[in-house]
Amino acid sequence: MKFDLLIKGGEVVDPGGERSGRLDVAIKRDRIATLDRDIPVEAAFRVIDASGQYVTPGLIDLHTHVYHRATFWGINPDPVATRSGVTTWLDVGSAGAYNWPGFREYIARRAEARIYALLNISSIGLTATTGELANLDYCDVDLCCKLINLHRDMILGVKVRIDRNTLRDSGIEPLHRARAAADRCELPLMVHIGIGPPSLAEVLAHMRPGDILTHCFTGQTMRQIDEHGAILEAAKRAWDTGVIMDIGHGAGSFSFEVAEALMGAGHHPDVISSDIHQLSVNGPMFDLPTCLSKLLHLGMTFPEVIRAATARPAEVLGLQGQIGSLRPGALADVALFVIQEGRFPLYDIHMNMRESARLIRNTLTIINGRRLPAAPDDPPAPWIELSEEQRDLAARGHTPAAFAHNHS
Ligand SMILES: [Zn+2]
């Protein structure tokens, strides 16, 4: 038996598997066949030279928006997958009940990237920038559960955005309804936080172990720290009881000040996700490897940041064993990276800068045993205008393409 593909000479980092170190990775059809030292090149039809590079499982991005051309936020995932190593995309709430069939047919079925989703409790999803919960008519628990039960192969949980602008005069009622839908379907609930009211404590009172708090390092009013930088009591309880803490960087939700306070107190995020969308893809978020670089700079090790974007999100989604690891038998989703050394200015969403000595860059992406060809990003949606900060970043050479520079 000959392997289809051999990735040779790289440094394997697979925190969810049994083996790491200098190993060759052999792929047969769409599965990882074996990992071993010195597998001969004659054993495979095709060989990729990975020397000087890290070989990891394909990344799982737990917070993305890929309903492109039909919602305010969505981007086309495939061009970004090929340059970022993200092989599995969890779209969180771009679709609600009414626009789910379109998401499934026109986006997920046609993408090369592996796509799962959380269904928005709002039946109109994230068509517009905000306000999807302002009309409680759109918050239909029965309808949400009906769609979930028809599409359990792709829908892995419920999404709700809880902040002042999304709720308007609805109070906390949409959170009750999202909770009810998640409970009835026995799936996790992902809650987005931002600018209150309500308060963070009011939201956390409705969250359980296995639920996901996204934007966990937000610097907005629903932040986890008080004015002295100390963690709030309700937030500490959430960490201690097993609420999943997810970065969801995005365009409004990652603060170095909050990250440093929480990580300084020993609170490292469970999951590092991008919240990539039409605004954040133009910086300072850019892509998932850039997010990983920020957490690397803040003190996590390279295997720790890889775990937070592979094995840990796979567990959160109940997909461990299938994705997020290079164990033999797993789906052959693989990413290659280099860690560049130098002086790299990295910014949070408030444009506070930290100079990192290391930058993680993707060099190759393989999905289902197949190397994805490079493709240019889609142009921005017609309603997108770059902010002054984004234009300034671009003028200084910080563009999605520059951050994603492909080496191979
Ligand atoms: Zn989002």
Summarize the structure.
The protein has 408 residues and is α/β, with parallel strands linked by helices. Helix content is 25%, strand content 24%. The model has no long low-confidence stretch (mean pLDDT 96).
Q: Would you give an account of this structure?
A:
By secondary structure, the chain is of the alpha/beta class. Helices cover 25% and strands 24% of the residues. It has helices spanning 77-84, 100-108, 141-150, 164-167, 173-185, 200-204, 233-241, 256-264, 288-297, 302-307, 311-316, 388-395, 400-403, and strands at 3-8, 11-12, 21-22, 24-28, 31-36, 44-49, 54-57, 59-64, 86-92, 114-120, 155-161, 189-192, 212-214, 244-246, 334-347, 353-367, 370-371. The strands form three sheets. The protein has a seven-stranded parallel beta sheet with strand order 8-9-10-11-12-13-14. A hairpin with a 5-residue loop joins strand 15 (334-347) and strand 16 (353-367). Helix 3 runs parallel beside helix 5 (173-185). The protein is globular, with a radius of gyration of 20 Å. The mean pLDDT is 96. The structure holds zinc ion. Zinc ion binds at residues 63, 65, 92, 248, 250, 275.
Structural class: alpha/beta
| Tally of strands | 17
- N to C succession of SSEs: EEEEEEEEHEHEHEHHEHEHEHHHHEEEHH
Assembly type: single chain
- Within the largest sheet, what's the order of strands? 8-9-10-11-12-13-14
The rounded distance between the terminal residues' Cα atoms is 29 Å
Fraction of residues in helix: 10-25%
